[in-house]
Amino acid sequence: MARVCKRWKRLAYERPLWKRVDLAPYSRRLDGRAMWRIVRQFFTPSLKSLTLAGHLHSGRTGEIVSTPLLLELKSRAASLRHFCITTADLTGVNLSDLPESLVTLETRNCEIPPRWFKSLELDGAFRNLRAVDLSCCSRVSDPDVIDICHASSLKVVKLSWCYRISNSSIQHLSEKLTQLERLDLEGCKITDVSLHHIGRHLKRLKFLNVSQCRQVTQAGLDGVKMMLKHLEHLCLDSCTPINIPNLPTF
Fold this sequence. Notes:
Layout: H1 6-12, E1 20-22, H2 32-42, E2 49-53, H3 67-76, E3 82-86, E4 104-106, E5 131-133, H4 142-148, E6 156-158, H5 167-176, E7 182-184, H6 192-201, E8 207-209, H7 218-227, E9 233-235
Parallel strand pairs: 1-2, 2-3, 3-4, 4-5, 5-6, 6-7, 7-8, 8-9
Helix pairs in contact: 2-3, 4-5, 5-6, 6-7
């Protein structure tokens, strides 16, 4: 945009206009040094949304984010509400490096260390957080789900293809995150036991995705239909042949 004319160039460099930034399409050209320049030159408290894509499995050395860079982001964009990063190695950074103003956190297809969410145990930590998306984060396991449950105001949790989680952690999640309105468990190795706890505790649930959960049965899904009166969408792709009439599905 800055190459169109001098006027457009001036507008492109107006930092207050940098409110929603998506750098994912430029991941091949971005490295840590380039990110430092962008953060220092353009990011201000006006920034509300940031989307990045890392270098996981790309063969490149070094990652697009680091603890010093995230702390710089935290100091410059203290009002950031939405942070999304995909295909990144986050084993060298901490959750606490991110701004605590976040409402939505997405780390899809990222590699995160065990107990990355442990800092949520601290009183007041990320108290505005309402949505977490860990889809395809293959290292996520039961202890991580239990840690996430300390963010008791969550309304959206996406754990699709986190194949290490079990019925035990879904029971804990159902008992603790009773405000949930959306839960994605596609490709998870859960059974009717999880569906029972979901139906028993998540009374506000509107959207449930159990596609590719091949161990759930007709009986478990019948129970969900009976107990979740506000459920609007139930995703069942590639599940055991089932029949739940009068319920919208995807």
